[in-house]
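Shipment paperwork, digital attachment
Item: protein structure file
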Amino acid sequence: MKTFTKLLFIISLSIITACSEDANFTEIEDLSLIDIVITIDENPEQGQVLGSVENVENLNGITFQLISQTPENAFGIDLENGTFYVNDETLFDFEERQVLTAIVSASLGDRSSESTITVNLNDVDENTISLQLFGSDREYETVLRVDFYNNGDVIETELANTVNDAEGIALYANNRLYYGSTSNTSEVDVHSVNTDGTGLQSYRVSEQDYLFSAVASDQTQQMTYYFLEGGNLDVLDHHRLFKMNSDGTNQELLVQTSFGTRANAVKKIIIDENNSSGTNNERTPFLYMHDRHSIFAYDPNNDNNLEDTAIFSSNQYDIVDMDIDFNTGMVYMVLSYFSGVDKHYIIATTNLTGSETNFNAGTVAENDPVTSIFYPHRVKLDIEHQQVYWFIETEDLQQSILKRSNFDGSEVTTIWETNTCLCVGELEDIRIEDYTIFIP
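Attachment content:
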């Protein structure tokens, strides 16, 4: 809560009023300002008024001026009415300084007076959340929210405990989290829950030989799209894309792959609600999806074959993650590949038609190439902030560690060192099965 404190300039005026036949006039005989001391909370808003001249009936002719201030550019003043305000709010930071000062003058003709203004800052608790992770916790078989605070505190909150190895975790603007799970080898459920843990909903979408693979929510049409991977590919050699209403009703098959491998199961779905087809009453968005080697731009109304909609495809690279900036029409990818025994991670881009691909958009810092068997897992893109996140496991197999860097590889930061790990020597055996990052 910011404290708005009003600064009162006190001007002592000795006024002599005289009359003549020609005119009435007011003469200011003495002009003086007193020193002012005020206290406000740190981090005020730019332009916040700290004080002004009051209870003076006639300001005509009086001009105000800032003679000096410490630090420079902290304050501003209205030269005509003396309103005194915050000019640069970043300078009012208690951790940088506790006192700001200025000298202001008031002038009338050849007379002037100066006042020293002193602003003391209150320290305000700024321990706010700087980053959130929403993920599935393999150790405790839960979906959790991890809040990272400015002071270094990390607080874990359980959102759901009825799911094992949740995947396809996606966060939407209505503060709702979507994910899916497979239990008892063939029971597939799609779930959603509010970010505070309330409003959990679960819908059974298959009891056949399928595994959950990916899910996405169309917030405009209140539809949910989900992809199921064939379980035993010797028996069921294809994968399928479905849609249903947000309440779990009207489950409908949209398309299936012509053949099924572990490499061509879709792992992420991103919905472009602005690029859609169909009638005005029933608009269907385009679905951008990726499997291990390809990215698809699928139109549910017009495309009958998923493989024919690929806009990017390469057997040289594995697609680790994908995100899209629909404002610029840019698709971002984290790609991995082996060169001999060395594993490389790069960031690549392409456009929405796949006609312009750039394999030099960035790198996953400290991991190009990776010679250790403990190479990064669960690599995730944050295209808004041009950053990338990844997990590693410690060589003693005691911790899972979340790291972050910029796309250019700079500013490598350790975000989270978990106090437990499921590491047992398997490269994929880290604590967090899947996750998404949100910066408030």
